[in-house]
Design a protein that fits this description.
A: 117 residues, mainly beta, 11 strands, globular, B: 114 residues, four-stranded antiparallel β-sheet, 12 strands
Chain lengths: 117, 114
């Protein structure tokens, strides 16, 4: 089991640039989550998908953030244009839940450490 | 809205001391409860979970947690901590009804001094 795979592991870019973070969930998992972790705000849920459909994007901070899941094995989180306050570690997680009452834990990727200069 | 609170922001213990980290949640119905651990520089990993049955659950690395429904609590315990337990600990709750959304607590940072 390869686990949840995120790329890149580190990203440093200048403000105003477009940033794309990628995630490959564990095969067979049908729920996918994007989180942002900072010292100030802790772990925040940005958006999650079930069967490739966005279920709740209320955590997306603003229109500069967008996420897609074109198929069951791939998702992207895009920031355009990026700002220094977007600097954080972004985690992707997946779980095998069915979209109903669930007790299965989430499996996290290693995260992308994003620094916007 | 659901919320999860953790009693301590930062805990410092000596090796072999006993540990108890508090967690309370706000949802009054059926819940699924989790504790995750994040070692320095790593991703979150599941320590243990509760969804039904015996309210005292055992997890990896000697951790256990007790679900007390009347107190809306799910405290994490370990009788004797080790230096390698230094990490951030997150309590999390899923209300068991609305898809798979999990609410994480703010985390407790544990530092174990050799």
């Amino acid at each position: 089991d390869a686990g949840v795979i995120q790329s890149p592991r580190h990203e440093v870019t200048e403000m105003g640039q477009e940033v794309t973070l990628r995630c490959k969930p564990i095969s067979g998992h049908n729920s996918l989550f994007w989180y942002r972790q900072t010292m100030m705000r802790g772990l925040e849920l940005l958006i999650y998908f079930n069967n490739n459909v966005p279920i709740d994007d209320s955590g997306m901070p603003e229109d500069r953030f967008s996420a897609k899941m074109p198929n069951a094995s791939f998702s992207t989180l895009k920031i355009q244009p990026s700002e220094p306050r977007d600097s954080a570690v972004y985690f992707c997680a997946s779980s095998p839940n069915t979209g109903e009452a669930s007790n299965q834990p989430q499996h996290f990727g290693d995260g992308t450490r994003l620094s916007i200069l | 809205a659901q919320s999860v609170s953790q009693h301590n922001h930062h805990v410092i213990l000596s090796e072999a001391a006993s540990l108890e980290l508090g967690c309370n949640y706000s949802y009054g119905g059926t819940v699924n409860l989790f504790w995750y651990v994040q070692y320095p520089g790593q991703h979150l990993q599941l320590l243990l979970k509760y969804f039904s049955g015996d309210p005292l659950v055992k997890g990896i690395k000697g951790f256990e947690a007790e679900f007390i429904k009347s107190k809306f609590s799910f405290n994490l315990r370990k009788p004797s901590v080790q230096w390698s337990d230094t990490a951030e600990y997150f309590c999390a709750v899923n209300d068991g009804t609305s898809y798979d959304k999990v609410i994480f607590g703010p985390g407790t940072s544990l530092s174990v001094i050799p």
